[in-house]
Design goal:
about 15% strand; alpha+beta
């Protein structure tokens, strides 16, 4: 066939389809629904498993992360001492280090801001080799422990807070109450190497307090003659000799390696969650593909008479196939255009959902050109399979029509067998997705409505980050907490306010204590202010709460929960002494003055816990790195504003920022937030699966009823009642659905067992979730079959005579 013939076939096919657009619109809708949800899920999945395709830095393939390998092929962070050993490695052109980001208080505007900041040494930016938009890198003097204070700001921060002023270099920026000179502005294309935006870079300045082995990330640029394996071997040898001189031998367990930077940027999340995303995405792809193929197969079956005539007149198989491919191309254009537009909007909402369960990198995911090309390729593949399958089936049916055998219902039944198999596949996938989404939704509901021991209704929360240089000791931190809580109580409608060194949920700080019998135990420990128990409505079972003297007279006291008292002190906790050794100095003792009720995460038993007066340890960095967390309990019907909270905090501490005020709905454990997010994503997939399965079943039954019109007329002439014809079609439609329900239920149970750790004690074999799944799928099948069944029931006996006369 020449190009002119192909163009004519395409034009004739498109003109015919657009005159009666029902088929292409319905099939395009099925494809659009699949693309709209699959494209964002695939984007997230590939970002998690593959990482970014490239970095906007010169020769990114020559950048490596050097560190000990705690997981196969994954380099982790190092200490300052280890960095000094690596700086002179052979085979590297340059090397630099950075810390993980933390937040700082930045004076900008009426109220201070909490801004992410990252400390880097002067070799870090040189290793990335990114030209600055304005200014320069840090100098050796600025990177020295007591050098001049300097800061490099991001391109976005420069535009937002300085309006893109070219004279920003040399201006001062207040960071944690101290002025830092702006020496550079990063380019707009500066890569995001962390899973969060970092607007400020600060000099490492030997970063006081970096003593652990997991504080610094080393990035090296390899020279032209060195491979990652060679650099890793050099690093492993260098560190092995270093540890041997120190008498340490654990390096053999975690040898140093050089990992490509692009590979190291892959998000590392739980394998179960990753598998869940993969399974959901695969199921949606299969469901979309089977639905589109089925609809195209039914379209070809409807056109068998026309195809038979064209074949009898000498049309080749390729020309018949071209007609089906033309329909498929039109479907791809409609489906991909609508689906990609919808997925671009959906991706932003999905990114927020995924970020809420701990994967903050989702905020940087966007619908890329590669993903658009992948979606179009998958759509072309699906429609090509449908076109080829449909053309072959239509040619076979057309031959039978031409030989006067196509009027038999048995032939029609054989022709629709593949369509019914595809309906079963769709029912299996829909049942699996709906079943697991209902199971997760039940677990999320249980997590949200199960009592945890805290009452967070009417409780709002926020946190501040007190700088060490302004609040250097226990007394200053305690005074800060007292001043802020006192200011918060003056907000109209406030009932009480309290502070802690930890958020209400999700985070624990384990501390080692010596029991009265001499045994050592490590338990979750929380430092709290005087009114904390009242703010969260945690009951005091025995003894007394903390009072004013406990915070200001240096009294060493503690509260323990009932689980601690029962497990370690035989329910006789009052008056007992607990030994504590902060920072390996001399042991001091805390007297237990009260026992609280237990508080626990949903689906888990209460674990032992200790409460001490805020702050727990003036030498600990916890209050400075994680901040002080405040709870504001309001009287019912009252809601505080972020402006009022900021104003009260500024009265007590003008340099401290309040980023956001979390409402009562946000005071939930992380596991509940995770379940809510995951179940909503899979529930969306389940709704799409229901819609696609219903569309597929409706199309199959509609074509089946059209093909069996003469049969129904004969049955009516022989005395079959409309009710009998209605039941006949209803049984025919629900039969493949029932098979899919059984198989899909088994898969849903297996998925539930795999995700058992997320279900808060619920079993994967949950009768309530399975029953609801069956009811939903049966209702969907009934509605999809209802129209064709009613049409069959209304078939008059005279139709058989009309059909016979044709």
């Amino acid at each position: 066939m020449n190009a002119q013939v192909i163009a004519r076939e395409l034009w004739q096919s498109w003109r015919a389809s657009l005159r009666r657009p029902g088929f292409v619109l319905l099939t395009g809708l099925a494809l659009a629904l699949g693309v709209a949800l699959c494209a964002p899920l695939l984007d997230v999945f590939f970002f998690i498993t593959v990482g970014p395709a490239q970095l906007a830095v010169p020769q990114p393939s020559r950048l490596a992360v050097i560190g000990p390998s705690t997981a196969p092929g994954h380099a982790t962070s190092i200490s300052l001492e280890q960095y000094e050993q690596l700086r002179s490695l052979p085979g590297i052109a340059s090397i630099g280090v950075s810390t993980f980001f933390n937040q700082v208080n930045v004076g900008a505007g009426r109220f201070p801001l909490l801004v992410n900041a990252q400390r880097v040494d002067r070799g870090y930016l040189a290793t990335l080799a990114m030209p600055m938009a304005l200014g320069r890198y840090f100098t050796a003097a600025e990177d020295a422990p007591h050098g001049p204070r300097a800061v490099i700001i991001s391109h976005g921060f420069w535009l937002q807070h300085f309006g893109g002023n070219q004279k920003v270099i040399g201006k001062d920026l207040s960071i944690n109450g101290q002025a830092a000179r702006i020496v550079g502005v990063l380019p707009k294309s500066f890569p995001r190497l962390l899973y969060a935006s970092v607007p400020l870079l600060l000099p490492l300045r030997a970063a006081p307090g970096l003593t652990r082995d997991d504080d610094l990330t080393a990035i090296a640029r390899l020279d032209a003659h060195t491979s990652f394996q060679q650099l890793g071997a050099e690093a492993a040898l260098r560190m092995r000799l270093f540890f041997a001189r120190q008498g340490k031998h654990h390096v053999e367990k975690h040898p140093f390696i050089a990992e490509p930077l692009l590979r190291s940027m892959r998000a590392r999340i739980g394998g179960n969650l990753l598998a869940l995303f993969g399974l959901v995405t695969t199921a949606l792809l299969l469901l979309t593909g089977s639905n589109v193929v089925n609809l195209m197969l039914l379209r070809a079956q409807q056109q068998r008479h026309n195809l038979a005539i064209r074949a009898a007149m000498g049309a080749s198989a390729w020309r018949l196939l071209l007609t089906a491919l033309a329909d498929g191309l039109l479907i791809v254009v409609i489906g991909c255009t609508a689906g990609l537009l919808a997925s671009d909007l959906l991706l932003h909402a999905l990114a927020e959902h995924v970020a809420s369960v701990g994967f903050s990198g989702a905020s940087s995911i966007a619908l890329t050109g590669n993903m658009i090309a992948f979606a179009i390729l998958i759509a072309l593949l699906i429609t090509s399979v449908g076109a080829i399958t449909g053309a072959r089936r239509a040619r076979a049916l057309g031959a039978s029509v031409a030989s006067a055998q196509g009027l038999h219902s048995g032939q029609n039944a054989r022709a629709s067998r593949l369509s019914r198999i595809l309906v079963v596949v769709q029912a299996v996938l829909a049942t699996s997705l709906v079943g697991i989404s209902l199971l997760l939704a039940q677990a999320a509901y249980q997590g949200a409505h199960t009592s945890t021991g805290y009452d967070t209704r009417h409780v709002y929360s926020f946190h501040v980050l007190p700088p060490r240089q302004i609040y250097p000791d226990r007394q200053s931190l305690a005074m800060l907490a007292t001043q802020i809580t006192a200011a918060l109580r003056s907000i109209p409608g406030a009932e009480t306010a309290a502070a802690s060194d930890l958020p209400l949920h999700n985070v624990t700080y384990d501390y080692a204590f010596k029991l009265p019998d001499g045994h050592d135990v490590t338990v979750a420990t929380r430092a709290i202010s005087r009114d904390y128990l009242q703010a969260v409505r945690l009951s005091l079972l025995r003894g007394r709460p903390f009072d004013h003297a406990d915070f200001h007279d240096g009294t060493a006291v503690a509260l323990v929960n009932a689980a601690f008292a029962k497990r370690y002190l035989h329910d006789a906790a009052l008056g007992q002494m607990l030994g504590i050794s902060p920072k390996k100095v001399s042991t001091k003792f805390l007297q237990i003055i009260g026992v609280t009720a237990d508080a626990h995460a949903p689906g888990q038993a209460a674990s032992p816990a200790v409460f001490v007066p805020l702050p727990i340890d003036p030498h600990s960095a916890l209050a400075y790195s994680d901040g002080l967390h405040f709870l504001l309990r309001m009287h019912e019907g009252n809601t505080p504003s972020i402006a009022s909270v900021r104003a009260k905090v500024q009265q007590a501490a003008p340099a401290l920022a309040v980023a956001k005020l979390l409402p009562p709905s946000a005071q939930v454990p992380a596991v509940s937030a995770f379940l809510s997010t995951t179940s909503s994503i899979i529930a969306t997939a389940g709704l799409l699966a229901l819609l696609l399965a219903g569309m597929g079943l409706y199309a199959v039954m509609r074509v089946s009823v059209n093909a069996r019109t003469r049969e129904f007329g004969v049955r009516a002439a022989l005395g079959a009642s409309p009710r009998a014809l209605f039941a006949l079609i209803l049984r025919a439609g629900l039969r493949p659905l029932a098979i899919g329900l059984v198989i899909g239920s088994v898969i849903a149970v297996l998925l539930g067992m795999t995700a058992h750790s997320f279900l808060l004690g619920l079993s994967g074999l949950n009768p309530a979730a399975l029953l609801l799944t069956w009811l939903v799928l049966i209702a969907t099948g009934f509605l999809a079959t209802l129209g064709p069944a009613l049409r069959a029931a209304r078939t008059p006996p005279t139709v058989s005579l009309n059909e016979s006369a044709r």
